[in-house]
């Protein structure tokens, strides 16, 4: 090719990179050399000196864990969008092996998880992602959202070019080229595109003003992630979060950069961690506000159900990892205060555990007042939370009943400590509607067994209070048998000998499926509790129909926009003096 044939062009998009500070506070930027035929200027932009870090706190099972020798035991890296390695590693693990591995004192946070590729335009490399904690949390559930949030908050510094906010007086066409150098007028009430028009109580949403956008533009918002050991008490995690907040603030006070406060965004159980953290001395001033997504504010009844029957009939694939039957779930759950803190608290309400006769009449409804004494610590009743025998699985590291009782009391004390307490600047969204059914109540339905034509030793009223050793049998799947016996028959086909096990019983009980609205995990009664218990602290609360619990941030634009709206409102409350 001759020199005359060379065609000089401009790139289709403006080329820019944002300067970032090194450890000493000096500004630097990296740029990969491009073809000499591109003639447009690469702009190196200087971000605002005010820094408001955003710290994301994941839900239970959303943090990577290792053993005490730094070998990962719970790693949520993905292949083709799916945590294949985690699923393959846990699908066939029996209860004993689960118990031996997943104990809070034998695990710790693993920060060596997957990281996104370098982000050239925002000046973030993998070293920085690692320093910000992204390797601690689930790539599968969270990285897509965290990347989206980083770009939304830092990808464009001119509020006149923020396309998610509109006003009739502004131009409809808002390309970057047209808006560079233009200014957003003050005094306008903006429309946030994609935001619900009303809050969960039907009230009008407090719209964002152009003055709030102008104030947000005075800060930069690096996105951090905070992993914690979800097997240990959430109070332990809250203390670690408080330390992380202080560390993040300190490391962003470098050179000309100034940082006084952070914003926290939570998923599921992470909300309980952040609520506890906000109550600690000095934390409410260091945290501008908190955004809670799909938080089990007062617990979730499904936690009880999984301890009793596992997840097989709820979600077969997830059950292979979390536990297909009650034995597999209980082996971990009973020794993990963090998991036990997902159980319904006293504030969840009464009568959420029921036993029904064959006609649907409630024979038993609990709790009357105290779920800990009336349900979780019932050692003998068949409907009590934990079967003592399941604390000692084959090839496990057994725990005693007293150790389990200690953990329940830790959960109870934690529930009471955060009951009705929220940061004074709190935003909430939760799942609602009928599309994603959840467990609001747990109902055991009785029916007559195969021996029901014989004279029964058990009246239907007697069954509700039977002890486990009074002719009650279950293997942890969704069947409880009363009376009768287990019958084992052998059959032969050729040289093969097959053993068939059947249950002969006078009565059977099965745990019903979802009965109320929610996100598939957290029912509305728990999701909407923040406004009911702390109305002055909740600045806005949204019910979002159709969202699913685990992928709420990853897969649902409406949840992302609610979070983006809330962060923008909180940024306007920052102390920039």
From TrEMBL:
Molecular function terms from GO: hydrolase activity, acting on ester bonds
Keyword Protease: no
Lineage of source species: Bacteria, Pseudomonadati, Pseudomonadota, Betaproteobacteria, Burkholderiales
Domain GPI inositol-deacylase PGAP1-like alpha/beta: 252-297
Keywords (A to Z) from UniProt: Hydrolase
Name of the protein in question: Alpha/beta hydrolase
Domain of life: Bacteria
Keyword Hydrolase: yes
Source organism of this protein record: Massilia arenae
Signal peptide span: none
């Amino acid at each position: 090719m001759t020199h005359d044939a060379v065609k000089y062009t401009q790139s289709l998009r403006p080329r820019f990179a944002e300067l970032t500070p090194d450890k000493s506070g000096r500004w630097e930027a990296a740029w990969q050399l491009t073809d000499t035929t591109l003639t447009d200027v690469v702009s190196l932009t200087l971000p605002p000196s005010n820094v408001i870090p955003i710290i994301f706190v994941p839900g239970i099972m959303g943090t990577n864990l290792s053993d005490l020798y730094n070998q990962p035991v719970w790693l949520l890296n993905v292949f083709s969008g799916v945590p294949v390695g985690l699923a393959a590693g846990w699908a066939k693990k029996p209860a004993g092996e689960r118990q031996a591995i997943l104990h809070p004192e034998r695990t710790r946070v693993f920060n060596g998880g997957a990281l996104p590729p370098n982000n050239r335009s925002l000046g973030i490399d993998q070293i920085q992602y690692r320093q910000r904690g992204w390797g601690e949390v689930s790539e599968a559930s969270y990285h897509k959202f965290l990347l989206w949030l980083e770009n939304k908050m830092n990808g464009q510094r001119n509020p006149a070019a923020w396309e998610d906010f509109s006003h009739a007086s502004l131009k409809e066409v808002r390309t970057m080229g047209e808006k560079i150098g233009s200014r957003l007028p003050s005094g306008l009430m903006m429309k946030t595109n994609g935001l619900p028009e009303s809050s969960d109580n039907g009230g009008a949403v407090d719209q964002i003003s152009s003055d709030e956008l102008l104030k947000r533009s005075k800060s930069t918002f690096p996105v951090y992630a905070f992993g914690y050991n979800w097997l240990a008490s959430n109070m332990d995690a809250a203390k670690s979060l408080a330390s992380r907040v202080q560390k993040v603030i300190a490391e962003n006070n470098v050179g000309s950069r100034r940082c006084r406060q952070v914003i926290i965004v939570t998923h599921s159980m992470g909300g309980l961690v952040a609520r506890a953290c906000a109550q600690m001395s000095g934390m409410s001033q260091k945290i501008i506000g908190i955004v809670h997504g799909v938080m089990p504010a007062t617990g979730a009844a499904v936690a009880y159900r999984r301890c009793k029957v596992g997840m097989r009939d709820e979600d077969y694939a997830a059950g292979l990892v979390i536990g297909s039957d009650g034995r597999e779930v209980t082996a971990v759950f009973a020794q993990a205060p963090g998991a036990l803190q997902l159980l319904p608290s006293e504030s969840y309400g009464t009568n959420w555990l029921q036993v029904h006769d064959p006609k649907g009449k409630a024979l038993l409804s609990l709790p009357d007042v105290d779920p800990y004494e009336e349900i979780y610590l019932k050692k003998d009743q068949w409907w009590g939370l934990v079967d003592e025998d399941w604390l000692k699985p084959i090839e496990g590291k057994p725990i005693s009943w007293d150790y389990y009782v200690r953990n329940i009391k830790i959960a109870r004390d934690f529930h009471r400590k955060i009951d009705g307490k929220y940061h004074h600047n709190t935003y909430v969204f939760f799942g609602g509607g009928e599309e994603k059914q959840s467990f609001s109540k747990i109902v055991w339905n009785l029916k007559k067994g195969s021996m029901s034509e014989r004279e029964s030793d058990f009246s239907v009223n007697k069954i509700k209070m039977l002890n486990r050793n009074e002719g009650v049998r279950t293997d942890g799947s969704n069947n409880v048998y009363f009376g009768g016996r287990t019958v084992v028959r052998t059959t032969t086909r050729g040289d093969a000998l097959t053993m068939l096990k059947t249950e002969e019983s006078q009565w059977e009980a099965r745990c019903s499926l979802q009965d109320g609205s929610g996100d598939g995990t957290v029912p509305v009664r728990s999701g909407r509790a923040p406004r009911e218990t702390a109305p002055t602290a909740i600045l806005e609360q949204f019910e979002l129909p159709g969202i699913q619990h685990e992928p709420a941030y990853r897969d649902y634009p409406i949840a992302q926009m609610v979070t983006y709206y809330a962060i923008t409102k909180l940024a306007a409350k920052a102390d920039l003096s």
